[in-house]
Amino acid sequence: MAVHRLKKRRRVVSAIAALGAAGGAAAMLASTAAAGPTPGTYTYYSFPSGTGSLHDVTWTTTPQFDPGYTANIFWSHQFSFDNGQGAYFGMQSNGGQKRTLLFSVWDTDGARKGPDSTCEPFGGEGEGQHCQAHVDWTAGHTYKFSLAPKGQGWFTATVTDASTGTSTEVGTIRAAKGGREATGINPGGMIDWTEYFEWSQSSSNCYNQPAAAVAFAPPTGNGGTVTAKVSGTSVNNTCGSDAKVDTTAPGSVHRTAIGNSPRGLVHSDQKCLRAPGSGKAALSDCNTTAGDRAWVYSADQTLRLRSDDCLTANGSATAVGACQGDSKAQGKVNDPAKRWTYDPTAKTLKNSQSGLCLTAAADGTTSTKDCAGTADQKWTLPTTGTTDPTPVPPNPTPVPPVPPTTPPVHTGPLTDQDWTAATSGWGPAEKNRSNGEQAAGDGRTLTIRGTTYAKGIGAHATSTIAYNLAGTCKTLTVDVGLDDESRGKGSVNFEIYRDTTKVADSGTLTGTSPVQHLTADLTGGRQLRLVVNNGGDNINYDHADWADPQITCS
Known about the structure:
By secondary structure, this protein is mainly β. 3% of the residues lie in helices and 44% in strands.
C-alpha cells in the first residue's frame, strides 16, 4: 500500500513538530534522506496563548489543482494527542489506485473501522495503526477533517465534503500510550504539509513530478470556538525553486512542481501516447490509471513518465528511454532530442533538435515529420489550468509564450474572443451563461440582483480564465457579483491580472452585495487573467459572474 512508503519521512516531520517552532524546520528538512529530489511544503500553526488541551479539532483542505489520478501525493494534517502520541490525518492520490482518506496514530494497537473503511497496523520507522477509506476526492471541493473523542482514549476521524455535504467515517483509533489515555488533542506543534511520496525512488526528480496546489485553512478546536493562526512556512531545499507557500487571509496555499503539468494522458484523437516497452513509443487506449501512459510535460520541455523515461526523437523515429538529466540541476534535460515545444494553438509537439513534429500513424506507431498542422499532428497534453492565480517564480527553463490570437478592434465583448485556459471550482466555466451545476451548458441567463446580461462568463470559485492580449489592449470594464442562482448565499473575491500585476480587485462580495463595476488598465499586457477566489470561508454557492465584459484594444 502507498501508505507504508510514508513512514520514514513522517518520522522526520514528527521531530520538527516536537521542537514546537517553525524556525528549525528548514534545517531539519534539509537533512531528510531521500533517494530522489521531490517537492515538499509545510505550514506551521499556533493557537492563542493559554489554550489548553482541545476537546476536538477540525482541519480544512481544498485541493485547488489536481496533480492527476496517477500522481503519488499526500496532503496531510499532523498533530499529537495530549498524552504525547503522534498522528496525522489527510488525503492521498495513489498512483492510479483508488484515492484515499487516511488517519494514522503511532504507538497504538487499537483501531476500529468505519462503515466503509479498513484499519490495519503499520510498521517501518515506528509502529501504530492506520484507518483508510477510498474516496475519489475532487479538486475545487473543500473537505473538513474532524477529530472527536469517544471516551477511554478513542478518537473518531470523519471527513466531510463541504461542497456536497457527504461525510465519511475514516475510523476510530485509541490513543493510550504507556497506559495513559489521551483525553484531547495537543494545541501545539500542528503542521499541514504536502508530500510527493515518490521521494523514496531513485528515478524521482523535480522534472517528473506533477504540478499541484492545495489550500489549507488554520485548524479550529472546541467546536470552532478557538482558531489557530499561521506561525510559519517552509519549503524543502530539494525542488525549492519549483514550490512555494503563500499565506492568505484564510490560511495558506501550497503550490508544488511549478512549471510542470499535471500527470496524465497525451491524446491524439481517441488514442493516447504509450510506452509499451522495448524503448518504443506507440498509441493505445486511454487508460487513466496506467503508468505507461501517464506523462508530465515538464518545465524543461520534456515529456516524462514516472520512471523518468523521456519521449525522444531519433531521426524520423521516436523512442522512449532514460531522460539522463543533469543530477546537479535536479534532473533537468539539455539534450534537444528529448525536448519538445508544445504549441497549444496548433496543438503540435515540435522536437527541439530536428524541428519536426510528432506524428501519429493509423497503425498505432509514432514518428516525426515536417510540421503541417494536420490532424495526425494534433496532441492534447495534461496542461489545463494553473497552480497559481498569483505571480510565481520563473520556470527553470522558460516555456515559449503562447502565440497571441488576433486582438479585437476598438471596444467589444470579451466573450467574442476565445479564452486560452479556464478552470472553475464546480463544473466548467460557461460562456454567456451562469455557472449552473457540474455539466457543460447547464447554466442560465447571467443575473445579478435582478439585472440580466446577455454576455459574460459564469464561473465558480476557485477559478481562473485566461486570454491573450498581444500587447495591444487598453482597458477592460466589467460588472461582477454572485449570480442570483446562489440564492443570496456565498462569498467571493474578483481579481483582474495584467500578466502578473493585479489591476483590479472587488474585495469580498456576498450573495446580497450589489453589482460592482470594475475597470482594469491592460496597457502593454500580454495576458489577461480573471480570477475568482472564495471569500475566506469555503466555495459553497460561489457562483460568480463576469457580466458584460467590454475590452478596448487598438
